Amino acid sequence: MTRPRLALVNAAHEGALTRKNFRRELDADLVEFHVTEGEYPPAVEGFGDPYDGFVVTGSRSSVYWDEEWIEPTKEWAREAIDAGLPALGVCYGHQLLADVLGGTVEDMGEYEIGYRTVRHDGTRLFEGIDEEFLVFTTHSDAVTELPPGAERTAENDYGVHGFRKDHVFGVQFHPEYDLYTAGYVTENKDLDPERRRRVLDGVTEENYDRACEAKQVFDNFVAYVADRRAGAEPARAADD
Question: Which domains does the chain have, with CATH numbers?
Answer without folding.
Answer: 5-230 (3.40.50.880)
